[in-house]
Design goal:
Layout lengths: L3 H20 L14 H5 L11 H12 L21 H13 L10 H17 L7 E5 L2 H16 L3 H5 L6 E6 L5 H8 L7 E4 L9 H13 L3 E8 L11 H11 L2 E5 L24 E4 L1 H4 L7 E5 L2 H8 L30 H36 L3 E3 L7 E6 L7 H18 L5 E5 L2 E7 L7 H18 L1
Parallel strand pairs: 2-3, 2-4, 4-5, 5-6
Antiparallel strand pairs: 1-7, 6-7, 8-9, 9-11, 10-11
Length: about 475
């Protein structure tokens, strides 16, 4: 398709399909029902030699691709953590794709750089983050965490590893046993190694224990190792446990260790004044990350990463070949110096659309409603004689399981709950995932999709209850 009139025709057709899809999304099974290999085997073995008409391509999209899609924007999606979206965000993405800008430098699109800078200032104020934080957008929290660990490594070594590589490796990274797997992956990529990730014991609410962190740090120092970075989590992936930030920050300050705060999901809740207790001590952190693409109505991917010391970040990542030099060097933010990739998408546009369309109060209302739904439902589940809630419902996640006097062993209970979850997901009426809490299989129900209502969440809970009765 090279004709602008054809493009206009099909663009209108696609927008109509998009609107119909979003309007009728509940008619699709939430979790894709295809089997492994179904989509692959339905596609031709070879690429077409001649171009094909767009009518046929779009028809194949509907017939072949859609059955293999899990519908993350369904209000019946309760799995993992949300990747919620909104209509303004979709429109922003459409314009981003149309512009096709590669926003590595200020010069390559001044509006992209300056809008990003302004949006990060807005968000800093919206979430009551420390005034000295300076932020930019990345693709995911995994990338931001890698940036934090690389920057911590370079600060610890006075930037010598960037220059000379490793001569020895005694660097240690600390996190709780509940911290996201991206920490281990980042240490592998950074050359620190998984064996140098020290997982710290947690308390009964699965929060990192500060006293155990001190013990681990002092033991490493005695053995000649170098404490380099501590990762505190606000809202762990398994259970949304909130690590005690203030005492962790005090420990990092005492031992001069980089403190990175991972608030991938829960950071959005800081827009609510009643949840700002979570960031007590954040002013002492060296870096902070959260994902607007998880719970702030912004299409994936869009991660907000803040640092206390911009110069250390730039010294870690900046490199200046001749072909990237510009007249504005040093006068503007060239965000390609702020992270790993050279190329950068215009992510700020969709974020700007979202913030302006909903306003602070509109976003607050949606987040507050999600939390209220989850907490009310958690109370109802806990009151059921054959169900138990396994962790505190702090935010929008409920971890629960079915128990019955007929189930005599932990293994039996786990297998039963796994079977119930599989039946829920196979029904296509809702989609949930699981975690294990001290060996106990827990069903996770996360309320976070943009259009999820209390009735959607209640229906999902009733579905679990129904299949539990059926499986007895």
């Amino acid at each position: 398709m090279n004709n602008i009139d054809e493009f206009r025709q099909y663009a209108h057709e696609l927008v109509d399909w998009m609107a119909n899809y979003l309007e009728n999304i509940e008619s699709y099974p939430v979790k894709s029902q295809v089997q492994p290999g179904d989509i692959y085997s339905s596609l031709p073995d070879n690429a077409p030699v001649q171009g094909e008409p767009f009518d046929q391509i779009f028809s194949d999209f509907k017939q072949l691709i859609i059955p293999g899609i899990t519908h993350w924007q369904s209000p019946n999606f309760f799995a993992y953590f949300p990747a919620n979206s909104s209509l303004p965000s979709v429109l922003g993405e459409m314009l981003t794709a149309t512009l096709g800008a590669q926003c590595m430098l200020w010069e390559t699109s001044p509006a992209a750089a300056e809008l990003e800078e302004k949006c990060m200032e807005w968000i800093k104020e919206m979430l009551a983050l420390p005034a000295h934080f300076i932020g930019h957008l990345q693709d995911t929290a995994s990338t931001a965490t890698l940036c934090a660990i690389l920057t911590a490594r370079e600060k610890q070594t006075d930037f010598k590893i960037n220059q000379r590589g490793f001569k020895s490796n005694h660097y240690r990274v600390y996190c709780s046993t509940q911290t996201h797997s991206s920490i281990e992956k980042a240490t592998k990529i950074a050359g620190i190694g998984r064996e140098n990730v020290v997982q710290i014991e947690v308390d009964e609410d699965l929060r990192l224990k500060p006293e155990a962190l001190i013990d681990a740090i002092e033991k490493d120092i005695e053995e000649g190792k170098q404490p380099t970075c501590v990762v505190a989590t606000l809202g762990t992936t398994g259970t949304t446990a909130i690590d005690p930030l203030r005492p962790i920050a005090n420990i990092c300050k005492k031992y001069t260790i980089w403190l990175h705060v991972d608030a991938a999901l829960a950071g959005t809740a800081l827009i609510l004044p009643e949840f700002r207790w979570m960031n007590d001590g954040l002013e002492e952190a060296d870096s902070f990350v959260f994902n607007p693409h998880k719970w702030m109505l912004t299409n994936f991917d869009c991660t907000a990463y803040y640092v206390k010391d911009k110069d250390t970040l730039l010294r870690t990542f900046s490199i200046l070949p001749e072909y990237l030099k510009t007249q504005q060097q040093g006068l503007v933010n060239d965000y390609r110096d702020w992270g790993i990739p050279l190329g950068r998408r215009f992510r700020a546009l969709k974020l700007w659309f979202v913030i302006r369309s909903f306003g602070i109060e509109g976003i607050q209302n949606i987040i507050r409603n999600h939390i209220t739904i989850a907490q009310k439902l958690s109370v109802e589940i806990a009151a059921h004689p054959n169900f138990e809630v396994l962790t505190p419902t702090v935010l929008n996640l409920i971890c629960f399981r079915y128990i019955h006097k007929k189930m005599l062993t932990p293994k039996t209970i786990n297998a039963f709950n796994q079977k119930v979850l599989e039946k829920v997901n196979a029904s296509g009426k809702a989609y949930m995932t699981h975690t294990k809490i001290n060996g106990r299989f827990a069903i996770r129900l996360v309320v976070g999709q943009a259009n999820t209502t209390e009735q959607h969440a209640r229906n999902a809970w009733k579905l679990v209850e129904h299949f539990a009765m059926e499986c007895l």
